[in-house]
UniProtKB/TrEMBL annotation:
It is an enzyme of class 2 (transferase). Keywords: Coiled coil, Kinase, Phosphoprotein, Transferase. It catalyses: ATP + protein L-histidine = ADP + protein N-phospho-L-histidine. One of its GO terms (molecular function) is kinase activity. Residues 207-446 form the Histidine kinase domain. It comes from Thiohalorhabdus methylotrophus. This is histidine kinase. Gene3D superfamilies: 1.10.287.130, Histidine kinase-like ATPase, C-terminal domain (3.30.565.10), PAS domain (3.30.450.20). Residues 56-92 form the PAS domain.
Length: 448
């Protein structure tokens, strides 16, 4: 703005004005100049304020524009004063169209009654997470979670309310899908537990069947022997009853090897009883699995247990492979002798199988002795040895290299479990001179 020029002395020379008049005139001009100066300053300040206001307005617009939540600002009567673009987009109507309309009309009819009370409610309270349904541009109801708070002017007077809402339709859909997925997962888990139970039951049955196999074949073998003995005795007695003379009797006794038969009768009956006892024990153990008692651990001598196990393998399978025993007399250990018997039957059976499958001669040696605070036993054979890569798998259930029907792959798995339960270790390795060696150690007990 251009400033007025100060009047010069020649300009002020008016022949009609007195000196006082001239002085008053100068004063008026000066005042006018001062006022003009003030006006200019006020205009500058106003322009600055205006530009600050415009900046604030742009800032608010940008904030409102980037809000994904819905915003409705109302007066005390619930008439819309302002909305944000997110709401305009959802309801499909421009802010100018919504201006001064009642906010509750944006919502589904069943919710309107409740919303109509909001202007009253917010006088004393606020509304939090209230679930209502907005009518969208297509006329569908969109569930929203809404908050409502009162709005005051700079003098603290209530001038309306601010509603913010979040569309929970997506959230609800996601929740429903999650819930469904969770249910399906639970169902699958339930099925898995069931099939795992069935698999455990299958393993248990297979394990018991595996362990029953040896005593049963041992019993079979003994019963066949007893039947043959019975036939020979019958023939001998009948001949005597028919009045055979002494010479005839002696000849027949020699032919039928009655002396050896009578000597063998006791051990065979003893073994048969032992086999029956083992079957009984296994059934007892099976009962133990189903919650019954399994008896308490006892201190026993491992030496006779190994000896009997070796006899079982040799007699039961009718094997021709020799099993040499080198056992210390007293090998006290604590636990269950029946289970240890099972371990040695499994290990010796494996060794015998390996040797008989292997073309060539050889046998099995079982050594057991006390070493330090332990009882150490090893089962060595002259078989083909173990495949080095597969040694880590040996103790896993169902690992077998035997043809179907000849091995379940449970022998070493069961043995490992039993030895571990007895506080011992079981390891497999190849011998430098060929063949395999299974080494077992158990804590030594004080006395038998
Ligand atoms: N002394 C051994 N020499 C060579 N291989 C052995 C020996 N002992 C075990 N194995 C190998 O380990 C595998 C697993 O043995 P394990 O006793 O667990 O099952 P299995 O003998 O095959 O079957 P099952 O014991 O049910 O009759 C055997 O198939 C065999 O390949
Ligand atoms: Mg085996």
């Amino acid at each position: 703005m251009a400033r007025r020029k100060e009047p010069t002395a020649s300009e002020n020379q008016d022949p009609g004005l007195s000196a006082e008049g001239e002085q008053a005139w100068v004063e008026v001009v000066r005042k006018m100049d001062e006022t003009y100066e003030e006006l200019v300053q006020q205009q500058v300040a106003l322009e600055e304020k205006n530009s600050a206001l415009e900046e604030a307005q742009r800032f608010i617009e940008s904030v409102l524009g980037s809000m994904s939540d819905l915003l409705i600002v109302c007066d005390v009567a619930g008439r819309i004063k302002r909305v944000n673009p997110a709401l305009e987009e959802l309801v499909g109507r421009a802010a100018t169209f919504l201006q001064d309309t009642e906010f509750h009309r944006l919502f589904a009819e069943p919710d309107q009654e409740r919303l109509r009370t909001f202007p009253q409610v917010i006088r004393n309270d606020s509304v939090t997470d209230c679930e209502v349904r907005l009518v969208d541009a297509a006329g569908h109801w969109q569930p929203v979670a809404m908050n409502c708070t009162s709005r005051y002017d700079h003098r603290g007077r209530l001038v309306g309310m601010v509603l913010t809402a979040r569309n929970v339709g997506e959230l609800r859909r996601a929740y429903t899908e999650l819930d469904q997925a969770h249910r399906e997962l639970q169902e699958t888990q339930h099925q898995l537990v069931q099939s795992e139970k069935m698999a455990s039951l299958g393993r248990l049955i297979a394990g018991v069947a595996h362990e029953l196999n040896n005593p049963i074949s041992f019993l079979y073998g003994n019963v066949h022997v007893l039947r043959r003995y019975a036939g020979r005795l019958e023939r001998y007695i009948r001949t005597l009853e028919e009045g055979a003379d002494e010479e005839e009797r002696l000849r027949l006794r020699e032919e039928l090897r009655i002396g050896e038969l009578l000597e063998d009768l006791d051990p065979v009956l003893e073994g048969t009883l032992e086999g029956a006892q083992r079957v009984g024990d296994l059934v007892g153990e099976l009962k133990g699995y189903s919650g019954g008692r399994r008896g308490s651990p006892e201190t026993f001598n491992l030496s006779p247990v190994i000896r009997t196990a070796s006899q079982w393998v040799q007699k039961g399978a009718g094997s021709i492979v020799s099993v040499d025993l080198d056992l210390a007399e007293e090998l006290p250990v604590r636990g269950y002798s029946g289970q240890m018997h099972q371990v040695f039957v499994n290990l010796i059976q494996n060794a015998v199988d390996a040797v008989s499958e292997h073309r060539g001669s050889g046998g099995v040696t079982v050594v057991a002795a006390r070493t330090g605070g332990e009882v150490r036993a090893s089962i060595r054979d002259d078989g083909p040895g173990l495949e080095p890569d597969r040694i880590p798998e040996l103790f896993e259930p169902f690992f077998t290299t035997k043809p179907p029907g000849q091995g379940t792959g449970l022998g070493l798995y069961i043995a490992y479990g039993i030895v571990s339960e007895h506080g011992g270790t079981l390891q497999a390795a190849n011998r430098p001179e060929g063949g395999a060696e299974l080494s077992l150690s158990l804590p030594l007990e004080g006395a038998v």
